[in-house]
Amino acid sequence: MASINYPYPDPKNDAEREANRQAEDDYERQEQEAADFLDWAEGLPTVAPELLLEQVRLDLATAGLHMAPPEPLADEEQGGVVVYLDDDRVVVDRLPQIRLDPAALGQAEADRADSAAGICCATVREAMDTALGTILTGFRYTTTRRPHSRLGHIIGQPPTTPDF
User: CB–CB of 88/49 below 8 Å?
Assistant: First the structure.
């Protein structure tokens, strides 16, 4: 339990003592509200992955992002944000548009990460991944990175907020 930060650590008169009592009351009230919130949140059911998937798609489209169609995930003509289920987890990633995709393929074939095309592709990929993470956080989703990959985001259950 954290200690109370009294406004007057060494009160010299009744007004200062009253201010300290008020600070202690406020602190106890905040502690009780936090405990009530945790009790309230424990009883909530988790959101079905399919509903969470649709909510994430809607939120990203609301943010103005181009949503790639869900199937197929590797359409050569289409770029944009993809949201899909993987083992009942909602995953958000980005498919490159066709003009950047050949640059990535050429980079992989030639094994030249320092080429202009490779640098462009890597820079755009990292910037878009960072932007996706920022937007998801702005919508209050908790995210983790995909295992074995530096890119893409796995969405956690949405936050719960009681109506106090």
Answer: yes
